[in-house]
Amino acid sequence: MKWIFIVFVALLFMCCKSKPNLQSEQEAITKLLNDESYFAAKGDTVQWAKCWLNSDDVSFMYTSAEGVQSVKGFKTLAQFIGEIEPFDLKLKRDNYTYTIGDEIAFVSFDQHDNWGVADRKTKETRTLQKVNGGWKTIHSSVVEVSSFDHPQTASYHMPVNKMPKNPRNGFTNISGLGGMSVGYMDIPSPVDFTALLEGLPDNMCSSPHWGYVIDGALTVKYPGGKQETIQAGEVFYWPAPHTGVVEKNVKFIDISPDGKFIPVMDHLAKKMAEAASK
User: How many whole angstroms separate alpha carbon 8 and alpha carbon 32?
Assistant: First the structure.
């Protein structure tokens, strides 16, 4: 009987010992995930990078009503994060589930934040690997569930000459109209947007556009060499990715999804500010 008692005590000790370890691992992982998000929002790529494994095998996948965006490799992801315009992140997470092994961990949770839009809701997962006793993210998956909602937006109309201009990039557009942005573009020639789009995925515009050319013309170029010129009087749809060249003055109406269009506009503003400072 004595040996049974000893075994029982040993098992009890092991169970009691494992619980604090599991809890401490959960706390460490939660802190890592929070740090990673806040560093990204602040534009602190140095501290953000410490939260990820520096490997070609890391990946990020973002799914919304507009489609799926996938980034592979630490360098590519770091470049993508470096293009984020710093902002004050408001973050709330709940409904965590953890699966934690000796070297690999998997976490899922619900998130509510202001990333890109005021009231974004996502379901997210992270896969992590333990390196030198600490956890590093190796895969992030984000599903923007709120993008699949169909918000009721009040009707809207305004003369194009009274639409406000974005002071950071000079473009005239309004966002938040049922999840879409509407712009009136009056662009003098010559303009090649290719250099301004460098740093975005594929170094091209990552937003689709629908619209109508009022006056003039512009040429849109796609990967692989395809290009097309849109003339006055034509409606258009430009899938992502693409770039554009204005060879003679052009005026057109542009309609684009907020979730794709706003990050591109922020990127253009950053590039234009950098060029102005030189």
Answer: 36
